[in-house]
Input
Amino acid sequence: MLLSRRAVAEDHHAVPALHKVDLADLRSLGADERALENFLVENPSALGLGDLLVRDRQRHQAKGRLDLLFEDSDGESRYEVELTLGIVDESHLVRTIEYWDVERRRYPAYNHCAVLVAEDVTSRFLNVITLFTGSIPFIAIQVGAFRSGDGVALVFNRLVDTRDTLRDEDTEMAGPPSSRAEWLAKVGGGVMGTIERCLEIINNIAQQKRALTFNKQFIGLNTGGDPNNFVYFNPAKTFVWVNILRTDLRDEESIVQKLEDAGFEVKNRPPYKHIKVKVTASPEGGAANDLLRTVLEDAVRLEDGLKPYGVPSGAVAAPLSV
Output
């Protein structure tokens, strides 16, 4: 399509004026770390981590005070945030990891992620952070500031996010042992019943019977005492994420679509053979859903070298129960 000279001129005049800004450190603009903390309490979405709720600030721990603790709107994940102005040094990295470690041990029902927000993260420390890949979920965010009218404008740039490359095999590296009684006290009988019902579905067709392994961070499976986490569970108070590592990649998109059509919330992690299905526990119980049952059974068949049946269509999500 050809535009007239007049149309081009009008379009040109519609473009807003562009201006160059010079970034500066917050202190030189009259702000401090407390001001940055207050801003993030009021505007947690500025970090670019989704819809976050403020759980706590200046949270007391034995090793210091955690600047900010955020939780996502699903109640699934928590972010331990350390703020620092100026250049990052070793102590900032150590504190960020220590605060994260304390919180994940204290509240194992959540997925935890360490977050460092700093003005200047040098390439040396970016290289160090990437070494955490596969073991520590860590996000480094650089904050830039510039004068805007009578105020200060902030720009947040995510430099590193090791969550994108966490390996599925990490579930084999179980943390300190826990017990069914501890998990039951944390999440209740409804969620525990859902997990045990999933185990029952698995064992109904498994060539080798599986048992639950109660770890601090998740509930996995074992075969004769050896880890076998092709399915594992991240429980919360009112629901559980069922992680299914063995899915047929050729059908993964179809599986996810059918689960979503049935009312399940699903997260998948391409290119891994990994989907996460959010299953709501109901104290009153209810019939086990045929769709999720089939996905679990297919995972067992793939793990045990048997032919999967495939996922039925037209199923409707319902709480699992014992």
Summary: The helical segments are 5-14, 33-42, 90-106, 123-130, 180-205, 252-261, 290-303. The longest strand covers residues 77-87. Residues 166-175, 283-288, 310-322 have pLDDT under 50 and may be disordered. The chain has two domains: 18-166, 171-303.
